[in-house]
Amino acid sequence: MPEPEKNSRTTGQRASGAATQRLRVRRELAAAATELFATKGYEATTVDEIAAAAGVARRTFFRHFRSKEEAIFPDHDDTLVRAQAVLEAAPAHEHPLDTVCRGIKEVMKMYAASPKGSVERYKLTREVPALREREIASVARYERLFTRYLLGHFDEEAHRDGVSGYDEPLLAEVAASAVVTAHNHVLRRWLRSGAEGDVMTQLDHAFAIVRRTFGTGFGAHRPAGEQPAASVTRRDEVLVTVARTDAPLGEIMSTIERALSRD
Q: What is the pLDDT of residues 89-102, one digit of tens each?
């Protein structure tokens, strides 16, 4: 009789293989759609032509996509799952806004994995309203995910000005939108340049600006008795900083900045 552990491993391997095959077919369909849209035009291209160019049947196309405009965005579903996994696995001490920034980096990794294809897709979305609308719908899914996460980590005591319960959804949505907007600004600039330059460094710079502007009001869920990443004590004109050795540098700097801003 097969051992349970072996059966579990076999089942996992089959699931992984099926997922890999699914993504491969989706990407082949996306490549075919992108090429046809670019050469023949979006309106003139049919689903049957996309399926034929990818070497699959029409019914296979509709197992993966609901419409032809959806076909040039093959990775967003899986990327959204990866972004959510980043949120769920966040360290207890990490600032929630930093977690959200790490989450949306999964989107940038998706584009950066295929620079040429990403540039071609960007050009198409600028020219075809239906594709642009599909892209906007994809962006909205990330914003909703990040808004829910930030709302669950709101901490009134961490907010300098104090907010009411009515303001928390607003602040969470604004902060999530700021992260997504910063990401999209960097992404569009990178794509317009032909995907030249270190886009991840550019993204980190944009996130630092967002963190300084929207970082207050959210507190990480720390286990009972755990100390904050950093604390600042003022002694006359001297600031004394105490920080954990594993504390993120960005969180330490934010703590110092908040202390200085209280002058």
A: 999 889 999 999 99
* Rg over CA atoms, the chain: 23
pTM for the structure as a whole: 0.71
Query: At how many degrees (to 10) do helices 76-88 and 96-112 cross?
Result: 150
255 Cα distance to chain centroid: 25
Is the CB of residue 30 less than 8 Å from the CB of residue 78? no
Q: Which two tokens stand for residue 111?
A: 């584009």
Q: 237: helix, coil or strand?
A: coil
Other beta carbons within 10 angstroms of residue 71's beta carbon come to 27
- In three-state secondary structure terms, 241 is strand
**187 Cβ neighbours under 8 A, 6+ residues apart:** 107, 108, 111, 199
Dihedral pair phi/psi, residue 35, rounded to 5°: -65, -45
For residues 217 and 96, the answer to whether their CB atoms sit within 8 Å is: no
CB atoms inside a 10 Å sphere around CB 6: 9
Token pair for 238: 């001297």
